[in-house]
Amino acid sequence: MVAITAPNPMEQIPLMRCPKANAGQQGSAIPCVDLSAPGAAAAVAAACRSVGFFRAINHGVPACVTDALEARAMAFFALPTQVKLDMSGAARPLGYGSKNIGSNGDVGWLEYLLLSLSSNTVKIASLPPPLRTALEDYTAAVREVGGRVLELIAEGLGLDDRGLLRAMVVGREGSDELVRVNHYPPCTLPAPGDCGVTGFGEHTDPQIISLLRSNCTAGLQIKLRDGRWAPVPPDPESFFVNVGDSLQVLTNGRFRSVKHRVVAPEGAQSRLSVIYFGGPAPAQRIAPLPQVMRDGEQSLYREFTWGEYKSAAYKTRLADHRLGPFELRGNRPPPSEQPAATASGADPQRCLHQQQQHLYQCHHLHAAAAAAAGGSGVLAEQPS
Ligand SMILES: C=C1C[C@]23C[C@@]1(O)CC[C@H]2[C@@]12CC[C@H](O)[C@@](C)(C(=O)O1)[C@H]2[C@@H]3C(=O)O
Ligand SMILES: O=C(O)CCC(=O)C(=O)O
Ligand SMILES: [Fe+2]
Predict the structure, then answer these.
(1) Which atom of ligand 1 is nearest to the CA of 320?
(2) pLDDT tens for residues 171-186?
(3) Residue 224, SS3?
(4) Is the pTM above the cut of 0.90?
(5) Is CATH 3.40.980.10 the right assignment for the domain spanning 7-340?
(6) How do the domains of the chain map onto residue ranges?
(7) Are the CB atoms for 58 and 33 separated by under 8 Å?
(8) What separation in Å is there between the alpha carbon of 268 and the centre of ligand 1?
């Protein structure tokens, strides 16, 4: 008789073979922008051009709003898996998920809630009232910060209409705003030396911008232009802003959608992060803004709508180069510009190869993973 065993999802989590981060001094690579300072627009634009990522301070969101959501979210994740599933539904892609990210085989050492802010979804409404209230307060506040950052971006780009980008996302009827709450429990897998276990694999965010706030537990890393990974020291009082693929296209590659990933925590503390993803309405045309283009400059991308991009993106794996199929490789930017498309334009096959290189083939670790998955903690339970 042949015994057929279901594949253990923990065994599919790639253990990163690269150092946990390899870009020198902590935090030095991360620009910091004071959103209330007079030069904020220029500083935001400089950060989006050079790194595609920055830490925003003086954003105006009271600590009681972020702290309340953190506490309510931790209480939610402490509930039994079945209760969490009953309250939010299994992620498809919205709802409660554990280990599986998206629907194309990506896995990570985390559980999460993925919610849409559009009024016609039932997901937030069915959450426990204290968590729902905390989420509503938080999302109202983070939308304001997102709107302010989009205004600063428009100003930094020299657009006449400072409200153009904000109006695509914040408060636009039918816009596609998501909130994701990620919980990374301390990782029980032994990882050798300077390696870590993947919490959330490397990727870019498809939307226009993302705003992240986390608790004090480290793990987030961003990929710098030179290919090194820089740790992002956690700072619960700041928001971390990253440029999404759509903003890269709107600026014809001047702003860069930054690759980022999360290494699962090893100590005693969980990482809890909340990310707001600002996407436009499905019918929104995503193409370089005429005002950012120089005379004779060609678009680096074929035209598409957010709806088209999102449905294509959600068929990809996390690490894929999602803009690849939309690039017009024959078109070149003016020599003075160095847009991201030419710097990082790997094809999907190359990305797959890089992913495979990250797979750390180590059988005793797989055995330990299987034991951990069967033995303890919330991640041991596999949602249906
Ligand atoms: C593997 C996937 C998960 C994701 C959809 C995708 O097919 C590729 C993009 C992923 C991503 C990354 C940023 C956000 O966390 C997210 C919600 C998004 O919009 O794109 C996730 C998607 C997801 O978790 O469903
Ligand atoms: O949880 C984090 O810190 C980052 C997660 C992330 O990049 C995402 O959810 O898209
Ligand atoms: Fe992300």
Answers:
(1) 8
(2) 788 999 999 999 999 9
(3) coil
(4) no
(5) no
(6) 7-340, 345-372
(7) no
(8) 28
